[in-house]
Model the fold of this input.
Amino acid sequence: MLSRVRSAVAHLVSSGGAPPPRPKSPDLSNAPSAQPAVPPEAPRSPPARAGSGSSAPAKTVEARASFSRPTFLQLSPGGLRRADDHAGRAVQSPPDTGRRLPWSTGYAEVINAGKSRHNEDQACCEVVYVEGRRSVSGVPREPSRGQGLCFYYWGLFDGHAGGGAAEMASRLLHRHIREQLKDLSCWSSQKEVTHESLVVGAIENAFQFMDEQMARERHGHQVEGGCCALVVVYLLGKVYVANAGDSRAIIVRNGEIIPMSREFTPETERQRLQLLGFLKPELLGGEFTHLEFPRRIQPKELGQRMLYRDQNMTGWAYKKIELEDLRFPLVCGEGKKARVMATIGVTRGLGDHNLKVCSSTLPIKPFLSCFPEVRVYDLTQYEHCPDDVLVLGTDGLWDVTSDCEVAATVDRVLSAYEPNDPSRYTALAQALVLGARGTPRDRGWRLPNNKLGSGDDISVFVIPLGGPGSYS
Amino acid sequence: MLSRVRSAVAHLVSSGGAPPPRPKSPDLSNAPSAQPAVPPEAPRSPPARAGSGSSAPAKTVEARASFSRPTFLQLSPGGLRRADDHAGRAVQSPPDTGRRLPWSTGYAEVINAGKSRHNEDQACCEVVYVEGRRSVSGVPREPSRGQGLCFYYWGLFDGHAGGGAAEMASRLLHRHIREQLKDLSCWSSQKEVTHESLVVGAIENAFQFMDEQMARERHGHQVEGGCCALVVVYLLGKVYVANAGDSRAIIVRNGEIIPMSREFTPETERQRLQLLGFLKPELLGGEFTHLEFPRRIQPKELGQRMLYRDQNMTGWAYKKIELEDLRFPLVCGEGKKARVMATIGVTRGLGDHNLKVCSSTLPIKPFLSCFPEVRVYDLTQYEHCPDDVLVLGTDGLWDVTSDCEVAATVDRVLSAYEPNDPSRYTALAQALVLGARGTPRDRGWRLPNNKLGSGDDISVFVIPLGGPGSYS
Done:
């Protein structure tokens, strides 16, 4: 994520310790991508030194950050070097020769243009087997073994201020979901509590447990920075899309666009943030005001009337400027430049437990939420054709590509392939990444319209909803 | 509002005092309904005695409540008695002979079937002149006088636990809006602060000032209970619909339904309420838990696993029952029976400053919000025909009538009248109220399908968007 955290790397605090224990392999059944999520050749970074304030050079910290790419890319050491090359920005996809991702999912990614040492995006695609806590009653089952069930899982993690949180989430979040889904076996229909609402609750809690694990282990291990998380779970006919951050998911179905997520930023979450600052003013540390003003107030404007809005307002009104209003606004800036406490540009995600306000010890984490919004799409309610897809992308894609442009690319690329050609979804993912990256020209990466392409990390999943090799 | 507040009237606390000072008449220009909002013949209730707990009989308190009907109904003393008759439930509308409401607005209302002594709904329809705070620059003006501008105003107020708050709001809220809109004259375009967002902010703040006035004057005057408020402001080509409560506004345009509000109830605002209880546990007084469970927990279930959800969750998950979970849930019940603190079924509105939890001194007001959600509809973006209308109704209408049924009635009634017949909108309002009330049959008010009609107060405005006498 490009410049999402201003000066935040300088505030990372990690103590030394043993390398993280390798979690035991996930319990997978029929999983085409059952390799361990962290390849043995991926270098592990040494523990970072304790942060000491804004004077610590960012590069020093970043040089020590972990670096790995998704296992399913099956990168050789040479391939890993090419994936890590900011100058070439080669688009990476799983090899044609290897085992395909579940549902013939397409995937492509590209590293940023130099804003961070490594690609801070991570991805995961798995088939996960859930053992029931006890005997399952009343729950229909996927093709499964024993008393459990299977879910399909895709995750995109867009890291900031280091790659550690994204790497950890890509390795572990689906296991937290698996753990939570064990409770499905206890379920029996009661009142408003549907099977679907239990899956939603399981995903919500899994995000929380993942975040808590990051908090617990941040001192002993290398869990630097934070990450946005966009996750898809397919279970028993329904697609659950969970988003915490500013990645985005859309379904393109017969040319129609169905939004499956919304972004959580200082602008979209302004009222939640302001309410928290209002109810818990101690979190503002006497440095910030929960009120928003159209511009920074000058001391000489004390007593004058100025536009403002608070946690209850969507509109603007006038107030007389008081001394407290001279503090820096909790939320300020517009668009991609909007920030919480002048520091972070995304308001939901995992990690960031050590994030402090620049030149201050004030923690920002209390304002960040690890809870995703979960949207549910019932795959059985519509007869999907091979051209219907769910597209997941990190903000590197969406910063320069509209939903409509993505839908147009879906149409253009898929119509160039036979409907039963499973490589078409990877080709589509590559086209989307290439279209957002652009080509090097005129001192920058440029799109065909000569506008600047995205200099951010870009990662895209294309999940066919009715294609060859899909659930059906 | 039927049974919206359980036992709440017993907790009203008002001290004695002088009768309320009559506010000075509103500053109106070209107002067809420029009569004072409170007709001289409307009886004013004496100040209520101090409430002394749940033993106070509701009837005693209610008997002292104020009773008036909207001025524009021009009711004679005899008419007022008929409007107050629970047995006949005659539908009331402005007389054909009098001056029409602005825009030929249609209006109809009917009293409840006996749940409260008087009709606790109130309504207001005015043209309001706003004088600028200082010379207006850059703001286009309606037909106006001097340096000000005019707005058209419609308000529906659905009272509970007495009629005082609704009556006061119907008399004063538009004056607070007028006061706030004076700031428009200070406006000059800057960054994201549009003219529209200033009007929205003015309406939001007017609701807050109205609520604060009720708080200030509740001891000296008769401001009993609370009320939902649904308000429409037309200004400079745009319709602003502000809703705080469970009334509803929809536009029916060429048969299409455009929702212009959403309802604020313990169910729709569960997460806001739970968050407040979580962040400010002292507001729960040790009597309530902010967690929600599908059913009340029994003491013998301590230590067992139970479904729950908290302020962050839309789904359900399991937790081990602890001692605190045995407290009563802050939010419980479903549909029309959902309650905050087992007491009130609506979570936004004006008043309710004295509302306490039944058999307790715990105040409920901190959980209620006086802030409306404001939606904006640009009238200039579409060429409206005389059959396009904005329908406002209290929950008495919507409890038994769907949006589609309202749209069908719009079509049926309006097509029976000439497009330029200004009485068609009143006929439509009457048809909607009659359709929700039903007719007395089989020991109750019944709809044609033999289901029970609404026993609640029912009030309906029908505002033509392109009809005769409208803004154009």
Observations:
- Chain A touches chain B at residues 180, 183, 186, 190-193, 196-205, 208, 275-276, 279-280, 294-295, 305, 307, 309, 312-318, 334, 369, 371, 373-374 (CB under 8 Å).
- The two ends of chain A are 35 Å apart (CA to CA).
- DSSP finds eight helices and 19 strands in chain A.
- The first strand of chain A starts at residue 106 and ends at 110.
